[in-house]
Amino acid sequence: MPTELAEAQIAFLRGKFEAAREVLDTLDTTIPATSSIYSSVEDSFDNIEETRLLYERAYDQEPDAEATHELYEEYLRAIDAVASELQVLEIELVYLDLHQYQRNSTTSSRLDHASSLSSELEKALGLDITILPVIWDGFAIDPLDQNIPATGDLSQIYVLILPRTQSDPEFYDPIVAHELAHAVLDRQDELKTDFYNAVRDVQRRTRHEIDDEAHFARSWRTWFEELFCDACGVLTFGPAYLSSLARHLHHSNPYYIEKDADRDLHPPPALRFDLVMDLSEDVFPELMDGIRDDCIAFERHLDALEHSRPRIYETYDYGDLRTFITQEVPAAINHDIEALVDDISDGVSPEERPERAHRLAANQYWMETYSP
């Protein structure tokens, strides 16, 4: 039977699985969903054995039958499934190992702060997920257990990656809201579909204005995720998000539009800033004076680079699609921006509102007009 190579691969995967178990046993930090992932891998090994037995019986009876060939392919797919799930477990262990190491280092206070902030944001955004903060190379969020049978189609475990910096936490805290918003969008299939339909509608109405319709549509479909997350940042942090984002968006070419459709597409910083400005002025116009200097500083940055703006920028900066985001996202997600704005307007101190303490502290950091 043609199973010798497959059996060697299974033996190798079992060795990796046993090594993963040893690592799990040494970790102080545990995540409940890890046990589910581990159990899922165990069940997948059982599935390999079941499919192997079915194949061997069929092979003994009719080795050249089509059904026998199909069972062999099913056997190989079962092995692939174990390899895939085991890779998820191993990646999680890398992050858990890093998290545990950093918990016992001088960076532990930053991890504690990130965990506390994440809990506050999860409640504001209506999320029920596990966040594992680690310090690495920049702001990002990594879903770990997506498409694992034990946890379902949606990831329940996200690694929150933070940059190595000595900056005050309030300086970058608002960007954490943007990262957690990626998990929110994972749960917004209907909104994504509505936006993609809006892009198609714009495409139909502007055929003669756009040189490359396919690139326009692909760009906006990809941009939506980042712009959605920016909207969530505004709706959770209020004015502080715009001030923090202005520093985060500083770029030598803020009007740049990626031409290679095979590369990861990000919205131009100028477009992101304009969208955040639009939404901020809609939601808390009375607080904009408190961050006016930051807005002016970024606008001066854009004005100084006006000469670098490509001809297609005005075509791609399409108002209807920006309006979709500023109007539909606030209606689609959980947020407490009204209560946050009231607290800022009333000069409430962070200590008085534990459910918004980190976000009020960030606004106190950025706004001269907010002094509890």
Write the layout of secondary structure elements.
Layout: H1 4-26, H2 32-61, H3 66-103, H4 108-125, E1 130-143, E2 157-163, H5 169-185, H6 189-205, H7 213-237, H8 239-248, H9 269-283, H10 292-304, H11 313-316, H12 319-332, H13 337-345, H14 357-366
Parallel strand pairs: 1-2
In short:
This protein is mainly alpha-helical and 372 residues long. It has 14 helices and 2 strands.
General description of the model:
- The protein is mostly helical.
- It is built from 14 helices and 2 strands.
- It has helices at 4-26, 32-61, 66-103, 108-125, 169-185, 189-205, 213-237, 239-248, 269-283, 292-304, 313-316, 319-332, 337-345, 357-366; strands spanning 130-143, 157-163.
- The protein has a two-stranded parallel ribbon with strand order 1-2.
- Helix 7 crosses helix 8.
- The longest helix has 38 residues, at 66-103.
- The chain is globular and about 80 Å long.
- The termini are far apart.
- The model has no long low-confidence stretch (mean pLDDT 92).
* Shape summary: globular
Helical fraction equals 55-70%
Mean pLDDT across every amino acid position: 92
* Number of E strands: 2
The number of helical runs is 14
User: Which structural class best describes the helix and strand composition?
Assistant: mainly alpha
Reported for the largest beta sheet, the result is: 2 strands, parallel
As laid out across the biggest beta sheet, the strand order is 1-2
Q: Taking Cα atoms only, what radius of gyration do you get, to the nearest Å?
A: 25 Å
The SSE string, one letter per element, is HHHHEEHHHHHHHHHH
Question: Distance between termini?
Answer: 77 Å
